[in-house]
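Subject: for your reference before the review

Hello V.,

The reviewers asked for a structural picture of the protein, and I figured it would be easier to keep everything in one thread rather than splitting it across files. Below is the amino acid sequence we used in the manuscript, unchanged from the supplementary table.
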Amino acid sequence: MLSRRKFLQANVAGLAVSSAGASASAASLPTANQATIEAPNGETDYWNDWPAYLTAHVNKARARRLSDLRSIASAAGVQKRIEQIRSTVWRLLGGEFEKTPLQPRTVGVIDRGGYRLEKVVFESQPAVFVTAHLYVPQQREPPFPGIIVPLGHPDNGKLWKVYQYLNQTLARKGYMVLTYDPFGQGERWQFLGSTPGPLRYPGPSGEHWLAGRPLLLLGSGFAQYRTWDGIRALDYLLSRPEVDPERIGCTGQSGGGTMTMYLAGLEPRIKAAVVVDGNSENLAGPSYAPPGAVADSEQNIPASLPEGIDRGDLLLAFAPKPLLICYTPADAGTTYAPSFTQGNQEVYAELQAAYRLMGAAEKVSLYTKALPHDYDFFSRRAACEWFNRWLGQEDWGSDEAGFDESAPDALNCTATGQVLTSLGGRSIVQLNTDRLRALAPVNPLGSTPGEAQAFRERARRTLKELLALPTERTVLDSRIYSSSTRKDVIIEEFVIHSEPYIRVPGWFLKPAHGGEPFPAILYVSEGDRNQVLDERSEVAALVGKGFALCAVDLRNLGDCIPRYPAAGPHFYGPQNLQEFYPWTCFCLGKPLLGQRVWDYLRTLDYLQSRPDVDRSRIHGLGQGGAALAVLLSSVIDDRVHSVLLDSPIATYRSIVESPVNYLHVSWYLYGVLKHFDLPDLAGCLAPRRCWLLNSTDARGEPLPESQLASLYEHALGIFRQSGASEGLQFKVCPEREKAKTVESWLQS
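And here is what came back from the structure prediction:
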């Protein structure tokens, strides 16, 4: 099994101001003729800035939440908090779906004496098939207490042996148990390979990451789908006449433990819960060290921290019903963040306080396991004793019989072992696409100049909110660290302070001769700023054409990429480090793309403060994902005279519609497709020049000009109405011809 732990260890991937106008407080700059300013020791450790920034903001969110919790002084206060948690979490996840017919059918039965195993298929949403096993006691009389068991991260889902063993044991004792395959596991793989063998993406965590990313663009979370599957599974369990609806429990391990937390917090029909090895620590927990306790897509709640909500609140919302949390210190720094043990103890203290206020102190307990990450014998025994105490009968005991073995094929609910190849139905990509079609506005740009202008104003306001831009500019405190001349080019190394904790390092190149002020190009890429020092670079060659060139490293790029945390790479591998940081930003309600846009806008402030730059002729050039930062900055800020977007993705929509996408999650914007897409934002630039060079689909493949013209049809119309018919252009050319295209853009 490629478990979540193995996936993580293998490192497989997958306070500041309005943004318009120049900075009135920018510091004065030394000229190239002044003496070189040397960087003192430690001044260029830019990799420390972003972690310090995140730590400050996470700790601020933590302090607000703890203050809220400490203000609760009664059972009524706890109940009010519970209601707030449920409504807020549902809103952040995207809301509940409509309960449609389950269409359940039993496709096979295995009689094992003390219980029977029924193979069941139901629909959690129309044409979304869920494969499940129902364990029905045969040595006791109904009604039975019912247990729903969401799964952890094994490839084979409900067939994972320790989960089968748990279900068999509970069924023998008299519990009716329902377990089901999650998206991306068992018989519900979503990203199948071209042959029945290898999967396109490695393991469940790989599938969960990929399934969850596009939902960010829709303003939702993968936990919405995962939780809904659990709720509909409970609907099916309760539809069985053998089940006592007043005695319903829920337990899961690892990712299933985390899903138990969601179900316990959001599903009132559950009466007792056991969380085993779940992600039961707060993201904004004690001793926070970036990127912190983020994990698979469904384990992160976007925009939750500004709302005062963290993972511990999912458990608090279960009060005062019986809750057992089982965890192992061995998970600290392996399966979960290094602070896992301390985080569990903190959450338990929060729960104890709430349960005491509700007069139910005995109904919450913390069990520390001796063994590593697994639903091991000790955990199964603890779960049995807990459920016996609160749902069944204590004399049912916690002993286990031998394991009932069956061939994997005999336990499948589908003929091929996969829903998508046996039953068809809607994949996660189709689900997301259907939602997008119902959600996305049609031509928000409008069809008249007046409508276009109204959209521009609306888009600017909305963008600032989505990007979570600061509301004030702080002092740039710009410094030139070095200045030298190479041939006929003056090269300056500089740094500015974008906002508290954040420095933006850059290179400023300009002709050594010629009349100032120079037209300037502000260049950003997914690589690093140092490439502009390569004399062979087509961008660097522009200095010889009479332009000043400014290149900076935006946050988490180039020299601003954080080093490994003090805990080391055991948990935070290279790919996970890159993945986890942006997810932390989403949970903070401060998307990384917004932070990068702010760095870009502050660099504009810097350029406008320089006497050697022509303020009326500042051009924006962005490469790859960084092209999005240029586009969004230019929509917000009119100081960018024209833009060239080199190899940008053509639409965010294509990410939702494609099973494969190359764009890193750090360039995503939460909820953007509820309002507009990239072609709409390009239309906002009219009549300023906007060229797209080798724009791509979600797979990173360049699109032909004809297809781009179709995708940008409404934007082209706005450019025509603005008297700038040639202002929006699409260029497709080989790498060797890029320099000519860039030159043509600047001269047009």
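For the response letter, the relevant points are probably these. The domain at 470-747 is CATH 3.40.50.1820 (Rossmann fold). Confidence is low (pLDDT under 50) at residues 1-42.

Happy to draft the paragraph if you're swamped.

O.
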